[in-house]
Amino acid sequence: MKRRSFLSMSAAASASLWLPRAFGAGFSDAPNVASAPASTGRGYDNLLILIELKGGNDGLNTVIPFADPTYYALRKNIAIRREQAIQLDERTALHPALQPLMPLWRGGQLAIVQGVSYAQPNLSHFRSIEIWDTASRSDQYLRDGWLTRAFAMKPVPAGFAADGVVIGSAEMGPLANGARAIALVNPVQFVRASRLAVPVSLHERNPELAHILDVENDIVKAADRLRPVQGQPPLKTAFPGGAFGSSIRTAMQVLTASEAAQPVPPAGTPRRQPRGGQGVAVIRLTLNGFDTHQNQPGQQAALLRQFAEGLAAMQAALVELGRWNDTLVMTYAEFGRRPRENQSNGTDHGTVAPHFVTGGRVRGGLYGVPPMLARLDGNGNLPVGVDFRELYATVLGPWWGLDAPAILQQRFEPLPLLRG
Question: Model confidence over 351-371: pLDDT tens digits?
Answer without folding.
Answer: 999 999 999 999 999 999 999
